[in-house]
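Hello Y.,

Per our agreement to keep a running log of every chain we model this quarter, I'm adding this entry. I've kept the format consistent with earlier entries: sequence first, then predicted structure.
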Amino acid sequence: MGFQRTLDGGLIVVLLVLGLLQGICGQPMYPCDNRVIPNAAVVYPFCNKALPINVRVNDLIRRLNLKEKVQMLVDKAGAVPRLGIPSYEWWSEALHGVSNFGPGTHFANPIPAATSFPQVILTAATFDTELWEEMGKAVSTEARAMYNAGLGGLTYWSPNVNIFRDPRWGRGQETPGEDPLLTSNFAVHYVRGLQSTDGGDPNRLKVAACCKHFTAYDLDNWNQIDRFHFDARVTQQDLDDTFNPPFKACVTDGHVASVMCSYNKVNGVPTCADPVLLNGNIRGKWGLNGYISSDCDSADVIYNTQHFTTTPERTVADVMGAGLDLNCGRFLGDHTEAAVKIGKLQESVVDRALFNSFSVQMRLGLFDGDPAFQPYGNLGPKDVCTPEHHRLSVRAAREGIVLLKNINRALPFSPTRIRSLAVIGPNAAAKDAMIGNYAGIPCRYTTPVKGLGIYTKTVHKPGCQNVACPRNPYLVRDAAQAASQADATVIVVGADLSIEAEMVDRTSLLLPGYQEQMVIETAKASRGPVILVVMSGGPMDISFAKHYDKITSILWVGYPGQAGGKALADVIFGKHNPGGRLPVTWYPQDFVARVPMTDMNMRPNPATGYPGRTYRFYTGSKLYRFGDGLSYTTYSHSLVQAPKLVSLALQTPNNSCAGIEKNMCNSVRVEHANCQGLLFDVHVDVDNQGSIDGRHAVLLFFSPPAGVHKGAPQRQLMAFRKVNVGAGGRERVHFSVDVCKDLSVVDEMGVRKLALGSHLLHVGDVKHTFDIQLGD
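Predicted structure for the entry above:
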């Protein structure tokens, strides 16, 4: 008491509040918490939930001094004790389940784990938009439960929507694949699942998602070139029709709360310092309602590694002037105050950044006091690792698994006929490998050998010491002996995070180490059918297995999450009919010798022999195509409805064909076409000609007229739908085609155009030709 009498009264209050911010009886404190500031909503307008968000945010900003403001620009946002605001950590991850990778979330009692869904690349292989949204909802429920328990925040820097451009990229596993439409759709539906509230109020968020890493980021560490130094030289054509569309969809259709800029430069400028990319595209053209974050330490990298700027203060001015609102790292916290004081940066720019980030926090309810009295305040430990979420993780893994080979219908196995099973390979007992990167602590694990053991007696021999698989004849001998004595053999090979991960790009597409030889020797010795299971994020050159008859079936399982072993066993023993489709092209090994990872061009160059990239442009040989995937049944497709002619009107005389006779015009700018409501329907019947029910992904492609636009794709996915088709049954699938959106292509200048002439639709083995012509 004597000590308090010697202090200024205001300081006493600050010290008391600081103590309260540490928690009362171990409970975390929150902004606008009545335990800290009695009647907070009356005392401070920014705590008044009845006021519009912009009014609340502006009230909060005007109460902060410059020193307090700049400490709010970093991921570990500083506390403001005098206003009852505790520190907040923005960085949490939820790529495929709540993760403890970022410092904003940790697992402890009463929530020691969370549901670990399949890695994104496998989830994308389901081609199931409803599933993606359902997963997002499950993840956001577990995230809210952890927030209520004081174990996490509500801002999650997921999903990763970069294009999987090169098969060697270690982070390709985090992405939905190589196609911009597939990636865009995944982004939109997963973000909706994460963010949408039960009431659908756009001014409220369940959690805040973040689409990353903008843009043309798909190299981490290859051939002594790393992401911090890499300058991605990208054409405007490739930016506008390959790299940027998923981010645009995130903002315009998914209404994501945040976009993260990447480490790399694009055409000489670091993305986090590029006003055209940030203010121009994300904030301007696309209308982001939220904040733009840097990748972690990107601002520091710009100054200290890329040497793009000459002083820390100039760096702050460049990145914040370009549109950056939040810095993962300390750089803005350390240098923004000085930048303002020496006149490099206006304080109003700091206020703008805070407005964008505080607005998201307000929409989350972070300034509404104790979450127990908010929507979702009843969520807690009982809502994490639930049986329902586990079943969803099993379903996602099963639906994503891709059957690539099945000679003489070797699969599915019958438990009554396969009485013993040799389970071989470095990933046969995989646990951590199944969940990939940016994962948390799973609720449980079902390894492949454990899952298969549910159906039949198993003998497990690894064949390799680990996925690097140094040659070990004794382990190979044991594997071959087990295969020679079992009714069938399952060999689980592939990769893990030691082979492909963040900052670990591959140099080879072959199975690592001695894996291929181990597989061949085991298959030679096998008594029964041999199933090769590839567990990997990126594609592998398994040509030897594709053409080797002793290997009767091949399955790709990605990184299938906590329930991966159960999902695999359910597919192998026929409880689930596989329906996954490859979301990436699988290239032969010679691709890595012919194509440097640093060449960003999507289009081929016949003059140099450069083959291009992805199914849309690649002209070389391939092992498997984008969209490949078999089933235990047979599907056929028939086109019921599609147009023969689409008539296109021009909006104004000032158009692409001005001054040219209509029959001489071969292309129209989309902006000059009268596209309002220009739609047509495509109806496709899908027949299941077999005796097994299945879920089938119907992929609708188109090819534009040849020779009209330089660099136009050979084929382009324009729509897809996942449908249930019973044995012997038929389902009709309806697609609505937006002519100017779905059938246009981007020219060399980045202008979206619609070719006139003969277009080709593809669905399954069915092709249909129709014309687009100018009407009167």
